[in-house]
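cron nightly-structures :: item 1 of 1
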Amino acid sequence: MAQKQYHVTGMSCEHCAASIREEVSEVPGVSEVVVDLSADAVTVHGTDLDDERLRAAIVEAGYGVADSVAA
């Protein structure tokens, strides 16, 4: 299983986290989305993860993506 982590800007509450989880969960291959509000981080687990689609889903939810780290 692959994992990607993103530093997300603009998150401030659980509603923000829920919005991101909802949008990112719809990307094909995603099996789990973990949002850490205190670290402004989103970690995505799944197979054949498409970085471009994951970033687009975060932006679609209304937030920015500062960087990513493939793990």
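cron nightly-structures :: done
The radius of gyration is 10 Å.
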